[in-house]
Design a protein that fits this description.
By secondary structure, this protein is an all-alpha fold. The protein has one domain. It is 73% helix and 0% strand. The protein has 2 helices and no strands. It has helices at 4-13, 17-25. Helix 1 runs antiparallel to helix 2 (17-25). The longest helix is centred in the N-terminal third of the chain and has 10 residues, at 4-13. The chain is flat, with a radius of gyration of 8 Å. The two termini are 13 Å apart.
């Protein structure tokens, strides 16, 4: 993750962040 908002989301969601990363990269 490179986006600040996503970074924060990763901290909140934890493992669920992987899904967000995949969607953003694609």
């Amino acid at each position: 993750s490179t986006d600040a908002f996503i970074e924060m989301t990763e901290t909140l969601l934890g493992g669920g962040s992987k899904v967000l990363d995949t969607r953003l990269l694609r």
